[in-house]
Amino acid sequence: MNGHYRAEPETALVVRPLDDIVLLYHRPSGQTHMVVSPVPEILEALCAGGDGDAAAVHDWLAQTHDLGPREQAISAIAAHLADMAAIGLVRAL
Amino acid sequence: MTLPLFQTHQIMLTIGPATFRIASAWRAPIDALERLYAAYPRPADAVADFTVRLEPAGRLRRWLRPSIFITGDHGLADAAPMSLAHGLLAAEMGMNLQMALGWRRHLLLHASSVEKDGQVLVMTGESGSGKSTLAAQLGERGWRLLGDEFALLDLVTGHVMPFPRLVSLKNRAVDVVAADVPAERMGPMLMGTAKGNIRHLVPRADAVARMGEGAPPAMLLFPRFGHETDVRAVGQGEIFMRLTQASTNYVALGEAGFDALTRFVATVPACAIDFPSGEAGMAMVEQLWAQRG
After folding, report:
1. Are B284 and B143 in contact (CB under 8 A)?
2. A14 and B255: CB-CB below 8 Å?
3. Looking at the predicted structure, is the pLDDT value of residue B2 above 50?
4. B128-163 pLDDT, tens digit each
5. In terms of CA atoms, which chain B residue is nearest residue A14?
6. Interface test with A, best of B244, B255, B263 (most A CBs within 10 A)
7. Cβ contacts of residue B136 below 8 Å, gap of 6+?
8. Domain count for chain A
9. Within chain A, which residues score under 50 in pLDDT?
Protein backbone atom coordinates (compact mmCIF):
# COMPACT_ATOMS: atom_id res chain seq x y z
CA MET A 1 0.00 0.00 0.00
CA ASN A 2 1.48 3.32 -1.03
CA GLY A 3 -1.39 5.70 -0.40
CA HIS A 4 -2.68 5.19 -3.92
CA TYR A 5 -6.27 4.21 -4.53
CA ARG A 6 -8.40 3.19 -7.46
CA ALA A 7 -12.13 3.63 -7.86
CA GLU A 8 -14.20 0.47 -8.09
CA PRO A 9 -15.55 -0.17 -11.57
CA GLU A 10 -18.60 2.00 -12.29
CA THR A 11 -20.76 -1.09 -12.37
CA ALA A 12 -19.94 -1.85 -8.73
CA LEU A 13 -21.73 1.15 -7.27
CA VAL A 14 -25.20 2.59 -7.65
CA VAL A 15 -25.22 6.24 -6.59
CA ARG A 16 -28.53 7.89 -5.54
CA PRO A 17 -28.44 11.45 -4.21
CA LEU A 18 -31.29 12.36 -1.83
CA ASP A 19 -31.86 15.87 -0.52
CA ASP A 20 -29.42 15.73 2.40
CA ILE A 21 -27.32 12.59 1.83
CA VAL A 22 -26.03 10.38 -0.96
CA LEU A 23 -26.84 6.68 -0.96
CA LEU A 24 -24.36 4.21 -2.37
CA TYR A 25 -25.40 0.64 -3.08
CA HIS A 26 -22.28 -1.52 -3.28
CA ARG A 27 -23.16 -4.42 -5.55
CA PRO A 28 -20.31 -6.80 -4.65
CA SER A 29 -21.23 -6.73 -0.94
CA GLY A 30 -24.93 -5.87 -1.15
CA GLN A 31 -24.31 -3.13 1.41
CA THR A 32 -25.99 0.26 1.41
CA HIS A 33 -23.87 3.21 2.55
CA MET A 34 -25.22 6.61 3.53
CA VAL A 35 -22.56 9.23 2.88
CA VAL A 36 -22.25 13.00 2.91
CA SER A 37 -19.78 15.44 1.39
CA PRO A 38 -16.85 15.05 0.75
CA VAL A 39 -17.18 11.28 0.17
CA PRO A 40 -19.19 11.53 -3.08
CA GLU A 41 -16.80 14.19 -4.38
CA ILE A 42 -13.74 12.06 -3.56
CA LEU A 43 -15.32 9.13 -5.39
CA GLU A 44 -16.05 11.34 -8.36
CA ALA A 45 -12.46 12.61 -8.40
CA LEU A 46 -11.05 9.09 -8.34
CA CYS A 47 -13.41 7.97 -11.10
CA ALA A 48 -12.43 10.95 -13.22
CA GLY A 49 -8.71 10.59 -12.67
CA GLY A 50 -8.32 6.81 -12.68
CA ASP A 51 -6.14 5.98 -9.71
CA GLY A 52 -4.33 8.44 -7.47
CA ASP A 53 -3.33 9.46 -3.97
CA ALA A 54 -4.82 12.04 -1.62
CA ALA A 55 -2.78 14.83 -3.23
CA ALA A 56 -4.04 13.95 -6.70
CA VAL A 57 -7.62 13.85 -5.44
CA HIS A 58 -7.05 17.19 -3.73
CA ASP A 59 -5.71 18.84 -6.87
CA TRP A 60 -8.63 17.58 -8.94
CA LEU A 61 -11.19 18.77 -6.39
CA ALA A 62 -9.41 22.11 -5.86
CA GLN A 63 -10.27 23.05 -9.44
CA THR A 64 -13.91 23.40 -8.44
CA HIS A 65 -13.98 23.61 -4.61
CA ASP A 66 -12.37 25.86 -2.02
CA LEU A 67 -10.59 23.28 0.14
CA GLY A 68 -8.65 25.61 2.46
CA PRO A 69 -4.99 25.03 3.39
CA ARG A 70 -3.52 22.33 1.12
CA GLU A 71 -1.76 20.17 3.72
CA GLN A 72 -4.80 20.01 6.01
CA ALA A 73 -7.11 19.16 3.14
CA ILE A 74 -4.80 16.40 1.86
CA SER A 75 -4.61 14.91 5.32
CA ALA A 76 -8.43 14.88 5.63
CA ILE A 77 -8.80 13.34 2.15
CA ALA A 78 -6.25 10.65 3.02
CA ALA A 79 -8.26 9.72 6.11
CA HIS A 80 -11.44 9.53 4.07
CA LEU A 81 -9.74 7.37 1.43
CA ALA A 82 -8.56 4.93 4.08
CA ASP A 83 -12.11 4.69 5.52
CA MET A 84 -13.58 4.23 2.06
CA ALA A 85 -11.09 1.46 1.27
CA ALA A 86 -12.01 -0.29 4.52
CA ILE A 87 -15.64 -0.64 3.41
CA GLY A 88 -14.83 -1.47 -0.20
CA LEU A 89 -15.85 1.79 -1.87
CA VAL A 90 -12.32 2.26 -3.28
CA ARG A 91 -9.41 -0.13 -3.65
CA ALA A 92 -5.99 0.48 -2.06
CA LEU A 93 -3.17 -0.26 -4.52
CA MET B 1 -45.98 -44.75 8.52
CA THR B 2 -45.96 -41.93 11.03
CA LEU B 3 -49.26 -40.90 12.51
CA PRO B 4 -49.65 -37.29 13.54
CA LEU B 5 -49.46 -36.85 17.27
CA PHE B 6 -52.59 -34.73 17.34
CA GLN B 7 -55.60 -34.28 15.16
CA THR B 8 -55.26 -30.90 13.48
CA HIS B 9 -57.81 -28.35 12.39
CA GLN B 10 -56.93 -26.06 9.56
CA ILE B 11 -57.97 -23.21 7.32
CA MET B 12 -56.61 -21.81 4.05
CA LEU B 13 -56.78 -18.03 3.70
CA THR B 14 -55.71 -15.55 1.05
CA ILE B 15 -54.84 -12.09 2.32
CA GLY B 16 -53.61 -9.70 -0.35
CA PRO B 17 -50.96 -11.51 -2.40
CA ALA B 18 -50.24 -14.21 0.21
CA THR B 19 -51.98 -17.51 0.92
CA PHE B 20 -51.67 -19.06 4.36
CA ARG B 21 -52.47 -22.50 5.69
CA ILE B 22 -53.09 -22.28 9.40
CA ALA B 23 -53.14 -25.58 11.24
CA SER B 24 -54.02 -25.86 14.90
CA ALA B 25 -54.16 -28.65 17.45
CA TRP B 26 -57.28 -26.92 18.81
CA ARG B 27 -60.58 -26.11 17.15
CA ALA B 28 -61.18 -22.71 18.79
CA PRO B 29 -58.56 -20.58 17.00
CA ILE B 30 -59.68 -21.95 13.62
CA ASP B 31 -63.34 -21.23 14.46
CA ALA B 32 -62.41 -17.64 15.29
CA LEU B 33 -60.53 -17.28 12.00
CA GLU B 34 -63.47 -18.83 10.09
CA ARG B 35 -65.79 -16.19 11.49
CA LEU B 36 -63.57 -13.15 11.18
CA TYR B 37 -62.12 -14.03 7.75
CA ALA B 38 -65.50 -15.17 6.33
CA ALA B 39 -65.34 -12.67 3.43
CA TYR B 40 -61.77 -13.58 2.37
CA PRO B 41 -60.91 -16.08 -0.39
CA ARG B 42 -60.49 -19.61 0.96
CA PRO B 43 -58.65 -21.48 -1.81
CA ALA B 44 -58.91 -25.03 -0.44
CA ASP B 45 -56.71 -26.61 -3.12
CA ALA B 46 -54.13 -23.81 -3.53
CA VAL B 47 -50.49 -24.18 -2.62
CA ALA B 48 -49.97 -22.01 0.43
CA ASP B 49 -47.12 -19.51 0.49
CA PHE B 50 -46.77 -20.13 4.21
CA THR B 51 -47.89 -22.60 6.82
CA VAL B 52 -48.55 -21.47 10.37
CA ARG B 53 -48.85 -24.16 13.03
CA LEU B 54 -50.30 -23.71 16.48
CA GLU B 55 -49.04 -26.62 18.52
CA PRO B 56 -49.17 -27.59 22.17
CA ALA B 57 -46.12 -26.29 24.00
CA GLY B 58 -45.72 -29.78 25.53
CA ARG B 59 -47.38 -33.19 25.24
CA LEU B 60 -49.88 -32.56 28.02
CA ARG B 61 -50.34 -28.91 27.23
CA ARG B 62 -53.09 -29.68 24.76
CA TRP B 63 -55.47 -30.23 27.67
CA LEU B 64 -53.73 -29.14 30.84
CA ARG B 65 -53.45 -25.34 31.04
CA PRO B 66 -53.23 -25.43 27.26
CA SER B 67 -50.32 -23.42 25.86
CA ILE B 68 -49.73 -22.66 22.22
CA PHE B 69 -46.38 -22.66 20.52
CA ILE B 70 -46.35 -20.79 17.20
CA THR B 71 -44.33 -22.42 14.47
CA GLY B 72 -44.43 -22.88 10.71
CA ASP B 73 -42.16 -22.37 7.70
CA HIS B 74 -40.30 -19.69 9.61
CA GLY B 75 -40.10 -19.62 13.38
CA LEU B 76 -38.37 -17.94 16.26
CA ALA B 77 -36.47 -20.31 18.48
CA ASP B 78 -37.13 -18.36 21.66
CA ALA B 79 -40.81 -17.48 21.09
CA ALA B 80 -42.72 -17.80 24.37
CA PRO B 81 -45.77 -20.09 24.44
CA MET B 82 -49.16 -18.36 24.64
CA SER B 83 -52.39 -19.23 26.40
CA LEU B 84 -55.04 -21.03 24.33
CA ALA B 85 -57.37 -18.16 25.25
CA HIS B 86 -55.14 -16.04 23.01
CA GLY B 87 -55.26 -18.54 20.14
CA LEU B 88 -56.58 -16.01 17.63
CA LEU B 89 -53.72 -13.66 18.49
CA ALA B 90 -51.27 -16.54 18.11
CA ALA B 91 -52.60 -17.25 14.61
CA GLU B 92 -52.32 -13.57 13.67
CA MET B 93 -48.80 -13.35 15.08
CA GLY B 94 -47.90 -16.52 13.20
CA MET B 95 -49.05 -15.00 9.90
CA ASN B 96 -47.11 -11.80 10.64
CA LEU B 97 -44.02 -13.80 11.46
CA GLN B 98 -44.16 -15.76 8.20
CA MET B 99 -44.52 -12.54 6.19
CA ALA B 100 -41.78 -10.72 8.11
CA LEU B 101 -39.27 -13.54 7.76
CA GLY B 102 -40.19 -15.09 4.45
CA TRP B 103 -41.84 -12.71 2.01
CA ARG B 104 -39.69 -11.72 -0.97
CA ARG B 105 -42.10 -10.50 -3.66
CA HIS B 106 -42.43 -6.97 -2.25
CA LEU B 107 -40.40 -4.64 -0.10
CA LEU B 108 -42.08 -5.05 3.23
CA LEU B 109 -42.42 -1.99 5.46
CA HIS B 110 -43.68 -2.15 9.02
CA ALA B 111 -46.32 0.48 8.36
CA SER B 112 -50.04 1.01 8.04
CA SER B 113 -51.53 2.23 4.79
CA VAL B 114 -54.84 3.64 3.56
CA GLU B 115 -55.99 4.75 0.14
CA LYS B 116 -58.16 7.61 -1.09
CA ASP B 117 -58.52 9.27 -4.49
CA GLY B 118 -56.45 6.44 -6.01
CA GLN B 119 -53.39 7.33 -3.91
CA VAL B 120 -51.92 5.85 -0.77
CA LEU B 121 -51.01 7.32 2.61
CA VAL B 122 -48.34 5.29 4.42
CA MET B 123 -47.80 5.68 8.19
CA THR B 124 -44.86 4.18 10.02
CA GLY B 125 -43.62 4.28 13.59
CA GLU B 126 -42.88 2.25 16.67
CA SER B 127 -45.50 0.13 18.35
CA GLY B 128 -47.75 2.55 20.24
CA SER B 129 -47.21 5.42 17.80
CA GLY B 130 -50.87 5.29 16.80
CA LYS B 131 -50.32 4.26 13.17
CA SER B 132 -52.57 1.21 13.46
CA THR B 133 -55.44 2.97 15.24
CA LEU B 134 -55.25 5.94 12.89
CA ALA B 135 -55.44 3.61 9.88
CA ALA B 136 -58.38 1.74 11.43
CA GLN B 137 -60.25 4.97 12.12
CA LEU B 138 -59.54 6.39 8.66
CA GLY B 139 -60.70 3.05 7.23
CA GLU B 140 -64.10 3.70 8.80
CA ARG B 141 -64.28 7.25 7.46
CA GLY B 142 -63.95 7.31 3.72
CA TRP B 143 -60.53 5.75 3.27
CA ARG B 144 -59.81 2.22 2.07
CA LEU B 145 -57.71 0.31 4.58
CA LEU B 146 -54.80 -1.45 2.86
CA GLY B 147 -53.25 -2.78 6.04
CA ASP B 148 -52.40 -1.90 9.62
CA GLU B 149 -49.13 -3.83 9.97
CA PHE B 150 -47.27 -4.23 6.67
CA ALA B 151 -47.18 -2.02 3.59
CA LEU B 152 -46.04 -4.04 0.58
CA LEU B 153 -44.09 -1.97 -1.92
CA ASP B 154 -44.17 -3.40 -5.43
CA LEU B 155 -40.59 -3.71 -6.68
CA VAL B 156 -41.48 -2.84 -10.29
CA THR B 157 -44.32 -0.31 -10.17
CA GLY B 158 -43.56 1.25 -6.77
CA HIS B 159 -47.24 0.87 -5.84
CA VAL B 160 -48.33 -0.04 -2.32
CA MET B 161 -50.23 -3.34 -2.37
CA PRO B 162 -52.90 -4.19 0.20
CA PHE B 163 -52.40 -6.74 2.94
CA PRO B 164 -55.65 -6.20 4.87
CA ARG B 165 -55.33 -8.65 7.74
CA LEU B 166 -57.48 -8.17 10.79
CA VAL B 167 -56.55 -4.93 12.53
CA SER B 168 -55.09 -5.52 15.96
CA LEU B 169 -56.53 -2.88 18.32
CA LYS B 170 -54.86 -2.47 21.67
CA ASN B 171 -56.05 -1.13 25.03
CA ARG B 172 -57.66 2.32 24.72
CA ALA B 173 -57.97 2.01 20.94
CA VAL B 174 -60.38 -0.90 21.36
CA ASP B 175 -63.23 1.18 22.76
CA VAL B 176 -62.57 4.14 20.48
CA VAL B 177 -62.85 2.06 17.30
CA ALA B 178 -65.49 -0.40 18.54
CA ALA B 179 -67.87 2.51 19.09
CA ASP B 180 -67.96 3.11 15.32
CA VAL B 181 -68.14 -0.50 14.15
CA PRO B 182 -70.92 -3.14 14.17
CA ALA B 183 -70.30 -5.98 16.62
CA GLU B 184 -70.04 -8.62 13.89
CA ARG B 185 -66.86 -6.93 12.63
CA MET B 186 -65.17 -7.18 16.02
CA GLY B 187 -63.33 -10.21 17.39
CA PRO B 188 -63.38 -11.39 21.00
CA MET B 189 -61.63 -9.29 23.66
CA LEU B 190 -58.30 -10.93 24.48
CA MET B 191 -57.41 -9.85 27.99
CA GLY B 192 -53.94 -9.68 29.46
CA THR B 193 -51.79 -10.44 26.42
CA ALA B 194 -48.13 -9.39 26.32
CA LYS B 195 -49.30 -6.13 24.69
CA GLY B 196 -52.28 -5.59 26.99
CA ASN B 197 -55.91 -6.10 25.98
CA ILE B 198 -56.36 -6.77 22.29
CA ARG B 199 -59.42 -6.96 20.08
CA HIS B 200 -59.37 -7.58 16.34
CA LEU B 201 -61.29 -5.57 13.78
CA VAL B 202 -62.44 -7.00 10.44
CA PRO B 203 -61.69 -4.45 7.69
CA ARG B 204 -64.66 -3.07 5.78
CA ALA B 205 -66.06 -5.14 2.92
CA ASP B 206 -64.60 -2.83 0.24
CA ALA B 207 -61.09 -3.22 1.70
CA VAL B 208 -61.42 -7.00 1.45
CA ALA B 209 -63.09 -7.04 -1.98
CA ARG B 210 -60.37 -4.79 -3.46
CA MET B 211 -57.38 -6.38 -1.76
CA GLY B 212 -55.76 -7.13 -5.13
CA GLU B 213 -55.70 -3.43 -6.08
CA GLY B 214 -52.65 -1.41 -5.15
CA ALA B 215 -52.09 2.30 -5.76
CA PRO B 216 -49.14 4.72 -5.91
CA PRO B 217 -47.94 6.19 -2.61
CA ALA B 218 -48.56 9.95 -2.25
CA MET B 219 -47.64 10.72 1.36
CA LEU B 220 -45.62 9.26 4.22
CA LEU B 221 -46.29 10.18 7.83
CA PHE B 222 -44.44 9.39 11.05
CA PRO B 223 -47.29 9.66 13.57
CA ARG B 224 -46.84 10.02 17.32
CA PHE B 225 -49.91 9.71 19.51
CA GLY B 226 -50.25 11.42 22.90
CA HIS B 227 -48.31 14.62 22.26
CA GLU B 228 -49.26 18.21 21.61
CA THR B 229 -50.15 18.90 17.99
CA ASP B 230 -47.05 19.41 15.86
CA VAL B 231 -45.91 18.91 12.28
CA ARG B 232 -42.20 18.56 11.50
CA ALA B 233 -40.25 18.17 8.30
CA VAL B 234 -38.06 15.06 8.07
CA GLY B 235 -34.96 14.93 5.84
CA GLN B 236 -34.72 12.22 3.21
CA GLY B 237 -31.64 10.71 4.84
CA GLU B 238 -33.51 10.17 8.09
CA ILE B 239 -36.55 8.86 6.21
CA PHE B 240 -34.40 6.34 4.36
CA MET B 241 -32.75 5.19 7.58
CA ARG B 242 -36.04 4.83 9.43
CA LEU B 243 -37.61 2.89 6.58
CA THR B 244 -34.70 0.47 6.32
CA GLN B 245 -35.19 -0.13 10.06
CA ALA B 246 -38.92 -0.57 9.45
CA SER B 247 -38.35 -3.15 6.72
CA THR B 248 -37.84 -6.81 7.53
CA ASN B 249 -36.61 -7.78 4.08
CA TYR B 250 -34.68 -4.75 2.75
CA VAL B 251 -31.30 -6.49 3.02
CA ALA B 252 -32.60 -9.78 1.60
CA LEU B 253 -33.97 -8.08 -1.52
CA GLY B 254 -30.58 -6.61 -2.47
CA GLU B 255 -30.51 -4.07 -5.26
CA ALA B 256 -34.23 -4.47 -6.03
CA GLY B 257 -35.01 -3.35 -2.47
CA PHE B 258 -32.56 -0.45 -2.75
CA ASP B 259 -34.18 0.72 -5.99
CA ALA B 260 -37.71 0.45 -4.60
CA LEU B 261 -36.90 2.25 -1.36
CA THR B 262 -34.83 5.06 -2.88
CA ARG B 263 -37.60 5.71 -5.40
CA PHE B 264 -40.14 5.84 -2.57
CA VAL B 265 -38.04 8.22 -0.46
CA ALA B 266 -37.15 10.50 -3.38
CA THR B 267 -40.72 10.85 -4.67
CA VAL B 268 -43.09 10.64 -1.69
CA PRO B 269 -43.47 13.77 0.48
CA ALA B 270 -43.14 13.05 4.18
CA CYS B 271 -43.46 14.63 7.60
CA ALA B 272 -43.73 13.71 11.27
CA ILE B 273 -46.96 14.50 13.09
CA ASP B 274 -47.72 14.60 16.81
CA PHE B 275 -51.36 14.51 17.95
CA PRO B 276 -53.08 14.33 21.32
CA SER B 277 -56.14 12.28 20.26
CA GLY B 278 -57.49 10.16 17.43
CA GLU B 279 -59.85 12.92 16.33
CA ALA B 280 -56.99 15.43 16.20
CA GLY B 281 -54.84 12.91 14.29
CA MET B 282 -57.50 12.33 11.68
CA ALA B 283 -58.07 16.06 11.24
CA MET B 284 -54.31 16.56 10.69
CA VAL B 285 -54.18 13.74 8.18
CA GLU B 286 -57.12 15.14 6.21
CA GLN B 287 -55.58 18.61 6.19
CA LEU B 288 -52.13 17.41 5.09
CA TRP B 289 -53.71 15.16 2.48
CA ALA B 290 -55.67 18.07 1.02
CA GLN B 291 -52.44 20.12 0.82
CA ARG B 292 -50.28 17.40 -0.76
CA GLY B 293 -48.58 18.25 -4.01
Report:
1. no
2. yes
3. no
4. 888 999 999 999 999 999 999 999 999 999 999 999
5. B255
6. B255
7. B145, B148, B167, B169, B173, B177, B201
8. 1
9. none
Which residues of B, range 181-240, sit inside 8 Å of A by Cβ? 235-237, 240
Length of chain B: 293
Cβ distance of A34 and B240 shorter than 8 Å = yes
How far does the CA of residue B254 sit from the closest CA of chain A (Å)? Answer: 6
Show the domain range for A34: 5-92
B130 and B216 fall within a common domain? yes
- Write the single-letter amino acid at B248: T
Query: Residue B45: its pLDDT value, please?
Result: 82
Sequence-ordered list of residues with C-beta below 8 angstroms from that of A81, at least 6 positions apart, any chain: A3, A5, A42, A54, A57, A90
Inform me whether the pLDDT recorded for B118 exceeds 80: yes
Q: What is the pLDDT of residue B3?
A: 44
Q: Please report the number of interchain residue pairs, chain A to chain B, with beta-carbon separation below 8 angstroms.
A: 36
Containing structural domain, residue B17: 9-102
Is the Cβ of B266 closer than 8 Å to some Cβ of chain A?
yes
Between chains, do A23 and B251 touch, taking CB under 8 Å as contact? Answer: no
In this predicted structure, the answer to whether residue B59 has a pLDDT above a threshold of 70 is no
Give residue B62's pLDDT.
Answer: 64
In this complex, is the C-beta atom of A87 within 8 Å of any C-beta atom belonging to chain B? Answer: no
Residue B1 confidence class, pLDDT cut points 50, 70, 90:
very low
Q: What is the DSSP letter of B187?
A: -
